[in-house]
Every structure is written in C-alpha cells, then in structure tokens.
Amino acid sequence: MLIDAYHRIHDYLRISLTDKCNLKCSYCDPVDSEIESSTQSQFMTVDEIDHLAGIFIGEGVKKIRLTGGEPLVRKDAKEIIRRLSKYKVELALSTNAILIDQFLDTLQSAGIRSINVSLDSLQKEKFAQITGRDYFDKVKSNIDLLLENRFHVKVNVVVIKNVNHEEILDFIRWTEDVPVHIRFIEFMPFSGNHWDHEKVFTHREILDLIQKEFSVQRIPTDPHDTAKPYYISGHRGTFAVISTMSEPFCQGCNRIRLTADGKLKNCLFSKGETDLLTALRKGEDVLPLIKYCIAVKNERLGGQFSSLAEAIPNADMIDNRSMIKIGG
Ligand code: SAM
What we know:
Blueprint: E1 12-16, H1 46-58, E2 63-67, H2 77-84, E3 90-95, H3 104-109, E4 114-118, H4 124-131, H5 136-148, E5 152-159, H6 168-177, E6 180-186, H7 203-211, E7 216-218, E8 227-232, E9 238-242, E10 255-258, E11 263-265, E12 274-275, H8 276-281, H9 287-295, H10 323-326
Helix pairs in contact: 1-2
The structure holds S-adenosylmethionine (SAM).
C-alpha cells in the first residue's frame, strides 16, 4: 500500500496522457508561458502507461483517472483506454468533450460510466473568450450525447470572479430538468496563470449566491471526496464546490498524479516530482521511487502555502508546472 507520513492511503491515480489540448484556456495553459510542449518521445508509451498502472494497482490503487492536457487528442488514446480496462479498477476520464462522439463505443466497452467534462460558460461568446476556441456547440451537443447514453456527467466549472461568476445561477438552473452534476472549482494558482486572490470566488460566496434563490441541502460525503456536494429539492442534477483555496481538504487526500512525461507528483501543488519514466527506461525498479515520493508528501498543499487564498498574493509565489503540464 502507498501510505504517507500522515497515514493517508493513496489509492487514486490520475494519469495525464498528454500536455497538448485542443482548447487554450489561459488559467490552465498560459499564453505567455515559456514552457514548451513535450515531444512525443518524452511521453510515456502505451506499454509504459500499462506497465506503470499495473505497478500502482499492485500497490492498492483502486481508481485511475485519465486526464491531460486533453487526453482524447492523443492518437493512441483508444488503445490506452482499452489496455487499462483489463484491470479491476474504476477507470474514469476528464475531458473537454470536444472529441467525445468519436469515443462513445470505446468508453462503453471499457466500462467507463462517469465522465468529468469541463465547461466554464453557458454562453457561446464567453466560452470562446475563455477557451480561445469556438467549440461551444460541439461541447454542448456532446454533453447531450453522453446524457442520452446514460453516462453520469459531472461538469467542471472553474469560477473566476468577474469572468464567469455571474453564470453560477444559470448553471444551477440547468440542473433543474437535466441530470448534470455541476462542480464549481475555486480558481487555483499555477505557473504563469495570472492568478491572484481577488479572482477567487470562494465556496462561501458561491453558496451565498445560490441560497438567495434556492433552498439547498448538503449531501453527505466520503472523507476522500474533494467536492462538497449539495442538492436542491426537485432538481434532476446536483451541484458541488471544490474549495481547494478557501477550505483545503488535504487531510483526506488519497491522490497521486503521473504526468504525461512520466513524473510522479504527490500533490497538485508539490514543487518536487519523481522521475519514474527515466528509471523505467533504464530498466530500474520504480517501486522504491514511488514509495519515496509518497513518503515525502507534505501535510498540506504541497508545502507551498498554508491556508486561505488571501495568504498568497499571486501565482508567482508558487513554484510548479502549469496545470496543462501536470494533468488536472
Ligand atoms: N482537458 C481535460 C478537461 O478539460 O477536463 C482534462 C485536463 S484539465 C487540466 C482538468 C481540469 O482542471 C479542468 O476542469 C480544468 O478546468 C481544471 N483547471 C485547470 N486549471 C485550473 C486552475 N487554475 N484552477 C482550477 N481548475 C483548473
């Protein structure tokens, strides 16, 4: 088992398949970033992903989420999904849904039933402004397609003050007749993403806004859940808030992240990473490296900051990759 110094068991692995994406959201993939995309040979191959996944599963990992960049832009994404579906783990996917219509059969055959889709605006023009691309209609129709095919769809909305916070109630109204599960995510700081604490719209602010119009009830959760879920009586969907900045949930953390270039991160905010791919390619045993990476995990927020969003004035104080290079 992968247990850290704070007795946290790590049984949820997120694997990034690529740092490339067909959207260009500035909070995730900074335009002025000096960081270059990795080349194909720097990425783990299908065999390497399969091999490493097997090692983690042998150490007690029960859930694997494929992410990126956009995982579905990788040419061999179908093969990776097929290969990982042989393991007795819950396989999940985070996607912007642009290519979902080309993957329905693969996802169904792999037994994937729950999909996280990013969508920060319900307005076509605002979507284009945030993502730098004109794919709103495609994303909306692919969400409909997932729902028609009875997938459990969670919609991730990164809430940024004065960018899309005015749309929170529109997202809530969407849950009235449609069984979508909205997850409002507090805006987080990463290298080059122009984060500052005044742009964070907190869990408390989100709830206050919703409660002005709706009566909401908390849904009980598992200690590992990052999202604080709520329901509104009569609505087919639900909503939740991921309060990383205002109310971090590190004490129940069970997550580890493998970047597309084969580096293990023990926290989204960790400065350090452990290079599994180079060791694997040299024929070395990677298990001691995995155990070391978990053993040195900080108690909270990668050891980079301690509490509230107000404690750090801007993203330059954070030493990390951009989100697109980590795998969200
Ligand atoms: N392309 C896939 C997708 O769209 O879900 C997977 C990768 S994306 C990096 C995963 C999630 O991270 C998305 O929901 C995205 O909105 C979120 N994300 C990226 N940067 C973020 C930030 N600075 N703060 C909060 N969430 C962020």
